[in-house]
């Protein structure tokens, strides 16, 4: 229930900040088979650094999450 309320609050804030006429959408990043989320994970850099706010000693997230694969030459 708290997560639903958080998403609703986020959408209200987003809709209020967007100029009239522009659509606002959400993507469920937790859905591992959502095609938009899959593309974002593979091709986009995250705008929020989870590790920067993690408690000391917490295990790091999966390497490369949110970044394109490294191309070794």
Distance between the termini: 48 Å
Q: What is the helical fraction, as a range of percent?
A: 25-40%
Helix count from the secondary structure assignment: 2
- Determine the mean pLDDT: 75
Please write the string of helix (H) and strand (E) elements: HH
Q: Major beta sheet, specifics?
A: none
> Would you count the extended β strands for me?
0
What can you see in these coordinates?
This protein starts with a helix and ends in a 30-residue tail after the last helix. The chain has 73 residues and is mostly helical. The model has no long low-confidence stretch (mean pLDDT 75). 0% of the residues are buried. It has a domain of 26 residues. The chain has two helices and no strands.
Features:
0% strand; single chain; mainly alpha; 73 residues
Present the secondary structure layout.
Layout: H1 2-17, H2 35-43
What is the structure about, briefly put?
With 73 residues, this protein is mostly helical.
